[in-house]
Fold each of these.
Amino acid sequence: EDKVVQSPLSLVVHEGDTVTLNCSYEVTNFRSLLWYKQEKKAPTFLFMLTSSGIEKKSGRLSSILDKKELFSILNITATQTGDSAVYLCAVEASSGNQFYFGTGTSLTVIP
Amino acid sequence: ETGVTQTPRHLVMGMTNKKSLKCEQHLGHNAMYWYKQSAKKPLELMFVYNFKEQTENNSVPSRFSPECPNSSHLFLHLHTLQPEDSALYLCASSLRQGSDYGYTFGSGTRLTVV
């Protein structure tokens, strides 16, 4: 059964801390892995990863994929209260363009 | 605003009602998607349209009926729903079907079936 598992389910940190969010997957015919940030309602796209070992960075956020061990991590450095959100991981399978989403990690950054 | 507009924002309907959710984008995207987000469950893909053609129906019950009259508009027609259908329904679009182009999500319609 194809699945995506994110951990931890929730996380509370202080401003300035660094956090690492995990996403592991078992998906047949893997095509890509995507990270989204969901505040209130609409998820916003963060990264798409297709190749192992190549880090993608955007400001304080970075992500990397390990296709051998079937996982990805999302790092956020120097966290701010505006980083508080649910972070969703999704894996796209090449067969039928099916997406598998994890349940998300709820991050709360307190001042 | 993300560029993908969903209406209504909230909807309460009885089990015998018929209603429709609307999604509109003017981003020049050719693929549009319906997702269901239930509490404490992963986001579920429901339907995919690529250039107005339905390319994905993820085993969705027939009480949900999608319609895509053109690349800018997507509807989800609802009839004889069940209380367990209460959820947030998200619409998304992308340039073409597939993640290479990224996705833009709407803010969703919060549906409550009573």
Amino acid sequence: DTGVSQDPRHKITKRGQNVTFRCDPISEHNRLYWYRQTLGQGPEFLTYFQNEAQLEKSRLLSDRFSAERPKGSFSTLEIQRTEQGDSAMYLCASTDVRDTQYFGPGTRLTVL
Amino acid sequence: QKEVEQNSGPLSVPEGAIASLNCTYSDRGSQSFFWYRQYSGKSPELIMFIYSNGDKEDGRFTAQLNKASQYVSLLIRDSQPSDSATYLCAVTSGYSTLTFGKGTMLLVSP
């Protein structure tokens, strides 16, 4: 399978715990994006990387959120001290040379 | 603040009919326009993209762009029950992030 992959697909955690999600982009894509989507809303941008450089972060990305993309390959998104409001689908996308974004299956986070 | 507006629906059409989905955007600098389909509980799947004014056809789908009116639409011909999903309109300005609308739910009845 050569699409974008994300792990885990589902995560249930207790409030206050830390969680980390992983995204593996399509191999030849050098830009990688993270979005968050809640019920009834479209995806909202969180952050994006060009290779290993984090070029833009949304105001939605509070201090509890951190993202990395070591060596410009896979990316991780960590949420520290989770809150119930963090419950959402976290989507990763990578782009081809035409700047068309292809999404992974997402990680659904539930914070109890 | 870049905004993308869509009617939330649901838009109900009978099988075989044409479904028309509409989207307006606020940023005149927007350059690329996308339609994604999203089934419940799944991630968005790219359906169409369009960069220039006019129509672009791909199978049963036609995307229409009018930059002067800041308006994008998606027509689905010969609608099938399997087309029932939420359709997300998204726009971007060059190498930038996508700004999504909230999506329009389409229901195609057999």
Amino acid sequence: DAGVTQSPTHLIKTRGQQVTLRCSPKSGHDTVSWYQQALGQGPQFIFQYYEEEERQRGNFPDRFSGHQFPNYSSELNVNALLLGDSALYLCASSSETGWSETQYFGPGTRLLVL
Amino acid sequence: DAKTTQPPSMDCAEGRAANLPCNHSTISGNEYVYWYRQIHSQGPQYIIHGLKNNETNEMASLIITEDRKSSTLILPHATLRDTAVYYCIVRSSQTGANNLFFGTGTRLTVIP
């Protein structure tokens, strides 16, 4: 049973570019959440997708957007990249019907903006 | 904002029990206590969670005080592979409100 997978593992972009990160949830999970983790900090919640719609959102600008597909996989898009967007981007999946909706994390995508 | 307070760092001798404390004095009745850990540059790993009662699984035990204002994560026999940052998180049990607010956690170092 595959856990949460993310692609790519590493990415280098330049300021002003756009990036798309991908996440496949754990089998049986229908909810995907995205987090940003800057160096030396704990992960910060970006947003959560359920039934192909954004359900919750943290304190992130509109440059951060996402999408969830019918197979529950998800994408995170970041436009007009800034140097400060350099971070580890984590995807977590959970089941709306599972007990207490525990989130399980993927290995992350490390983004470097130059 | 994080609703928990943890010591920034702790050491533990290999083979001994590691007891990681967490204060969550403002926890409400419908909030769970969750523990995750993160080994360098990897995604956070779920350890255990509880609501009121103490919990135990193959990884750890979670002891929650009767007033629910604090808890302790216990790793019964710490190994070098348990060296990681441990996060204590309180999270609503409301459906659709399961996003996690991470603090800075406790950096546990297991010493040979």
Amino acid sequence: EPEVTQTPSHQVTQMGQEVILRCVPISNHLYFYWYRQILGQKVEFLVSFYNNEISEKSEIFDDQFSVERPDGSNFTLKIRSTKLEDSAMYFCASSRTSGGLGFGPGTRLLVL
Amino acid sequence: SQQGEEDPQALSIQEGENATMNCSYKTSINNLQWYRQNSGRGLVHLILIRSNEREKHSGRLRVTLDTSKKSSSLLITASRAADTASYFCATDAGDYKLSFGAGTTVTVRA
């Protein structure tokens, strides 16, 4: 069964550095998402992406964040200047329509 | 906010017993979904129930939805050790973003 994949699985970075988290959504899916989960807290919506543009974003998704679909298969989340509070598990997800989302295994980001 | 809130926060049961967890939410929804998360891993979609449905089954899972009470329940029958995980409800208002609850941690003892 097709799955969403994410790389890297773990990333450690210094505060202020830029990070790019990569995702390969399920191939026939049209909607793409990023969520994050700070340790011990709820899964939080960051952004949804459809037809090469952002369709929804949360208050968390400020100017430090950006998303891109650079080619037909990858979907990336960039954090321009990381802060300590950006440490979290970041999940990519995709869906064909408004149904159940397929989530990737996550990238654990640690900002020091 | 229309976030789902699960109850109880934690549940410990013996293998073979049933596990029931509840979810309440605040505003109108398009559908409600349940996900499972094993420790430190990604979210696995279990079941989706639409706002015009009252009950849905998938294998050992049974989900109910009561839109008048803005609540849902997830029942896992004949639990197994492999069911040990955190279970989250997530509400979808049709705007392609899910609002997750804090989850119920289920431990199935062998």
